[in-house]
From TrEMBL:
Transmembrane segments: none annotated. Its EC number is 1.5.5.2. Residues 45-299 form the Proline dehydrogenase domain. Gene3D superfamilies: 3.20.20.220. It comes from Streptomyces hesseae. Pfam families: Pro_dh. Keywords: FAD, Flavoprotein, Nucleotide-binding, Oxidoreductase, Proline metabolism. Pathway: Amino-acid degradation; L-proline degradation into L-glutamate; L-glutamate from L-proline: step 1/2. InterPro entries: FAD-linked_oxidoreductase-like, PRODH_bac_arc, Proline_DH_dom, Proline_oxidase. This is proline dehydrogenase.
Length: 308
């Protein structure tokens, strides 16, 4: 029951100030956030490549309130892409973006987000990589899917994310599981009402498996976002049943979580991509990581107590 409480706190300015000031926060944040600058995250990409891993890079900071901030978000990704180009790392690193960070929630936000994300997708394509549009709360999804469809007209490798806990997602998966599509399936990490989303973990897991089965049976490229050993094993079996080779789907896990498993899956021949977040506005991302797994919250609480 802690998850919904933590997700509500992720939107609280008062909690943001408290968490940011807590003595043990930095130790825990450093576990999930690869750095604050492009210069700090580049060695993480290089280290992952040396281990046979790939990454998807997320510049954190979706809670923007001005058009100027949306331009700054766009420019932060363009700076990242320029640096990856200089180092020849484009083939090992793609980008993940949240359209709220590109102005989706502002006035005329759909058009603004599309205008901001397009040059990022263009720049990524120019260095041999691509962009995946992250899923956010359910009220934003129709806009996200429309932008995804528009971008794929010129950049067909543009990916998107679907969330197993939403009732709509099985239909979305059937629509998206077409040739050339790239779809990441995750459980979901936002506070959603019972009218649109499963609330029980067991029901979410069942939905996750049903959706993976749809994606594996389709003609697209599934990206399986999970740290759950049972779901990973089920995914491997569903891929085998669908006759998929190891390079016809991939696993994705978060930076700082089950790092040994990242390496193990890659060593077995799987494509393994590490979702790697960086930047200074880490609070919302950090709180969702705490909400996803009680052990993360216990780790944070111990850090505060031992540093207090």
């Amino acid at each position: 029951m802690l998850g919904p409480v933590i997700l509500a706190a992720s939107r609280s300015d008062k909690m943001r100030r408290f968490v940011s000031a807590a003595p043990g926060t930095k130790q825990v944040v450093d576990r999930f956030i690869a750095g604050e600058t492009v210069g700090q995250v580049v060695p993480v990409v290089e280290d992952a490549a040396a281990k046979g891993l790939e990454v998807t890079l997320d510049v954190v900071g979706e809670d923007i309130t001005t058009v100027e901030q949306s331009y700054a978000a766009r420019d932060a990704y363009l700076e990242l892409i320029d640096r990856l180009k200089e180092l020849g790392l484009g083939a090992k690193a793609e980008m993940s973006v949240k359209l709220s960070m590109f102005g989706q929630a502002l006035e005329n936000g759909h058009e603004l987000a599309l205008a901001n994300v397009r040059p990022v997708v263009e720049a990524a394509d120019a260095i041999g990589t691509t962009v995946t549009l992250d899923a956010e709360d359910h009220t934003t999804l129709d806009s996200m899917f429309a932008i995804h469809e528009e971008l794929r007209k010129d950049f067909p490798k543009t990916g998107c994310v679907i969330q197993a806990y939403l009732f709509r997602t099985e239909d979305d998966a059937r629509r998206l599981a077409a040739a050339g599509s790239r779809v990441r399936i995750v459980k979901g990490a936002y506070k959603e009402p019972a009218s649109v989303a499963y609330q029980d973990k067991a029901e979410i897991d069942k939905a996750f498996v049903r959706i993976v089965k749809i994606l594996m049976a389709g003609s697209g490229y599934p990206m399986i976002g999970s740290h759950d050993p049972r779901l990973i094993a089920i995914t491997q079996e569903l891929a085998r049943q669908a006759g998929r080779n190891l390079d016809e789907y991939e696993f994705q896990m978060l930076y700082g979580i089950r790092s040994e498993e990242h390496v193990r899956l890659a060593a077995e021949g799987h494509r393994m991509r590490v979702y790697t977040a960086y930047g200074t506005d880490w609070y919302g991302y950090f709180m969702r990581r705490l909400a996803e797994k009680p052990a993360n919250l216990l780790f944070f609480a111990r850090s505060i107590l031992t540093k207090g």
